[in-house]
């Protein structure tokens, strides 16, 4: 499993007569709950809930950190422009000791300065490369905001207060 799966994600849900010509023989999912809402084109016996071992290692390594007054906002290309406007608006409502970190999806980095000029000229810290590791950020951020990214689940594992922005595809989470 590499991301959110469910009945709204056509990459993982094949209901009715849908035929998939190429699919893995086995599906290794993050847990039983992830496998319960989808119809995968491989036998149930080959759908294995193995967990997410990497995040367990990261949590153990970063354990004990104190949360900081950081709102981490996680972008995705289809909703990035709207989410950047939300981030700029939010900045005006936060106490002065709070900051916003806007983490771009890797597919956004190549043209981010053209797409988000207001974001780059604001007081918001934009992460357009791997200046900070994802789990490092989640271990420090008190709050996270996103739309349909699996990062939101990872943030929950790190104890972030989580908010879903009601932008297109928000219901996938």
Structural notes for this entry:
- By secondary structure, the protein is of the alpha/beta class.
- The protein has seven helices and seven strands.
- A five-stranded parallel β-sheet has the order 5-4-3-6-7, sandwiched between helices. The protein has a two-stranded parallel ribbon with strand order 1-2.
- Strand 3 (68-74), helix 3 (80-91) and strand 4 (99-103) form a beta-alpha-beta unit.
- The radius of gyration is 18 Å and the shape is globular.
- 25% of the residues are buried.
- The model has no long low-confidence stretch (mean pLDDT 87).
Secondary-structure map:
Elements lengths: L26 E3 L2 H5 L10 E3 L3 H10 L5 E7 L5 H12 L7 E5 L8 H4 L1 H4 L4 E3 L6 H7 E6 L4 H7 L3 E4 L9
Parallel strand pairs: 1-2, 3-4, 3-6, 4-5, 6-7
Summary of the model, kept short:
Helices cover 28% and strands 18% of the residues.
Give a short account of the largest sheet: 5 strands, parallel
- Report the radius of gyration as a whole number of Å: 18 Å
How large is the share of residues in beta strands?
15-25%
The tally of helices reads 7
What descriptors fit this protein?
173 residues; alpha/beta; five-stranded parallel β-sheet; two-stranded parallel ribbon; 7 strands; 28% helix; globular
């Amino acid at each position: 499993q590499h991301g959110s799966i469910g009945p709204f994600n056509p990459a993982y849900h094949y209901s009715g007569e849908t035929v998939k010509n190429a699919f893995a023989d086995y599906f290794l999912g993050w847990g039983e709950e992830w496998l319960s809402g989808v119809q995968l084109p491989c036998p149930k016996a080959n759908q294995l809930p193995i967990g997410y071992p990497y995040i367990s290692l990261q949590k153990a390594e970063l354990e004990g950190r104190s949360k900081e007054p950081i709102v981490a906002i996680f972008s995705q290309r289809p909703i990035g422009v709207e989410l950047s406007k939300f981030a700029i608006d939010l900045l005006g409502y936060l106490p002065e000791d709070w900051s916003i970190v806007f983490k771009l999806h890797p597919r956004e980095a190549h043209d981010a300065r053209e797409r988000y000029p207001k974001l780059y000229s604001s007081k918001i810290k934009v992460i357009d490369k791997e200046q900070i590791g994802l789990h490092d950020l989640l271990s420090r951020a008190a709050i996270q905001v996103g739309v349909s990214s699996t990062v939101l689940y990872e943030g929950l594992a790190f104890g972030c207060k989580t908010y879903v922005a009601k932008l297109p595809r928000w219901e996938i989470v």
